[in-house]
Amino acid sequence: AAETILPSWDANIAGNAYFIIAMTCIFLPAIWWVTDRIIEPRLAPIAPGQIESSTAGAIKNPGASLSQGEITGLRYAGLACLAVILFWIILCVGPGTPLINEEGSPEARFNPLFQSLVAGFFILFLAAGWAYGIAAGTVDNHRDIVRMMSEAMSDLAYYLVLAFAAAHFVAMFNWSNLGLIFAIKGAAVLQGSSLPDPVLLSLIILFGAFINLFIGSASAKWALLAPVLVPMLMLIGISPEMSTAAYRVGDSATNIVTPLMPYFPLILVFCQRWQKEFGLGSLAATMLPYSLLLLCAGLIMTIVWVVFSIPLGPGASVQFSL
Backbone phi, then psi, for 6, in 5-degree steps? Predict the structure, then answer.
């Protein structure tokens, strides 16, 4: 998008490094405060042995000690993890290893390794769980493994049904091009406002947070907004890195309250392990304090960053000049 204004523009990968570090340092205490002061007091206390999840089992007393079988199981699980990791390292070391493309370009050398990670994690968790079960006495044979995996998948049945309906909604929404219309029309309004930089970026953050409620994919939103917002802001003296930083703030604030977020149904399934009547509205209401506080903190942080012209990353400034 920046090449529309400056064809020789090269993206700075670390252009938001300082900004992201500051976001982490500010957001983490804010999240802790909301959890401790607002969310946790509203949740019903669960006493040990009072509620049992279908997959997580009964809640143990926090002061209870591990049994000898559990200790042995954890030891065996750790050894199994080390064995799988060692095996993957062997596949990456030495000439002719299958997970390193020695003839490829520097950017593509590790592609086979990256492509193997899904299988690697599957084997890692399977080996660790199986080793623990055998040592702890909860697994006798492969049939127990299949049964446990089937029970774990039963919790995802609700997610699959919900995802089926949500996928149709998202597809119809994309087909309607409403997201594109909102993005272009909203950007045009911002462009014609002639507001100061801090105010304009604050409006962009709010606009991005609003659009996030309708377009769950971060890459899809950026694909819609970047071709409009980045050149527009470059023309009024705001760097592409600052545009990206403002987008990050707005996108991160409302991710946790939109049902279009890909992980929203999965989080709902985990909540329903312990409280069956927990629904979409309950989850959105629980996450709303996080969203509002993160949005306010991000707005204040962005305004301070722009007012004092703090570098966003190595070689990345707030201002831009042709």
Answer: -130, 95
